[in-house]
Amino acid sequence: VPAAADAGARGIVLSGGEKVFSAGLDVPHLLSLRTREELGAAWMEFLGAARALAASKVPVAAAITGHSPAGGCVLALCCDYRVMAEGPFRIGLNETQVGLVAPEGIQHLMRRVVGVHRAERLLVGGELVESARAFGIGLVDELAPQYEVVARARAWLEALLQLPRAPVLHTRAIARADLVAALAPERIDIDTFVDAWNAPDTQAGLRALVARLGK
Fold first, then answer.
1. Furthest C-alpha separation in the chain
2. I need a labelling partner for 127 at 20 to 30 A (CA). Which of 53, 93, 107, 115 fits?
């Protein structure tokens, strides 16, 4: 993201696969890591990507062409605008379903788009919502047929770029300051997250997830 902006890009469209926008981190790979240092480094790399999106100097539109659970939802929430495919695709922070606790900073990302009470319900239940409901609660900004998602994300970006550039970027920086702050290291507390990774409930939930993925 920084490289694109530095190269002169005035906006970015972030897209993924046809059926899965992004599933976030590779859980089987994470379970294969043997040391807390390796695990911490993997999470820090992901958080670095999220911070890059949040702190992007230019607007970023997410083209969510499929499912977007967990880390995929985090990346989408760091973008300026989210277009999601219509249909049975799901998005959300489902950490509790697999025995994890979303850090406070990550929870803030959800609260800022759907409100405090609704975010609490979604986070505590680890709920993944289908695209129609995601649009209804403001988790995504627009729905489109799957084949039009990228084009609609680009259209939003192009319309924004027609406005006076400096005022848009300055207003955007003010409006998104809380987003950038939410991803500061002290609000993620990666050491606590890594410590919790090896808890029995967490390991059981993660291994159950891997078993389901294997099917």
1. 54
2. 53
CA dist 134 and 162 (Å) reads 28
Rounded CA gap, 213 and 11, in Å?
Answer: 35
What torsion, rounded to 10 degrees, do the Cα atoms 181, 184, 186, 191 define? 150
CA dist 35 and 38 (Å) reads: 5
Radius of gyration of the chain from its Cα atoms, rounded to whole angstroms: 17
* Rounded distance between C-alpha atoms, residue 185 and residue 192, angstroms: 12
The pLDDT tens digits for 137-189 are 999 999 999 999 999 999 999 999 999 999 999 999 999 999 999 999 999 98
Residue 169, CB-side half-sphere exposure with 13 Å CA sphere: 11
Q: Is the pTM of this model over 0.90?
A: yes
Tokens 């003010």 found at: 174
Give the whole-angstrom CA distance, residue 186 versus residue 163. 36
Q: How far apart are CA 5 and CA 125, in angstroms?
A: 37
Predicted confidence band at 29 (pLDDT cuts at 50, 70, 90)?
confident
Give the Cα separation of 189 and 8 in Å (integer).
34
Give the residue among 92, 90, 88 at the shortest CA–CA distance from 121: 92
| Interatomic CA distance for residues 205 and 97, integer angstroms | 7
Is residue 179 classed exposed, middle or buried when 0-12, 13-18 and 19+ CB atoms within 10 A define those classes? Answer: buried
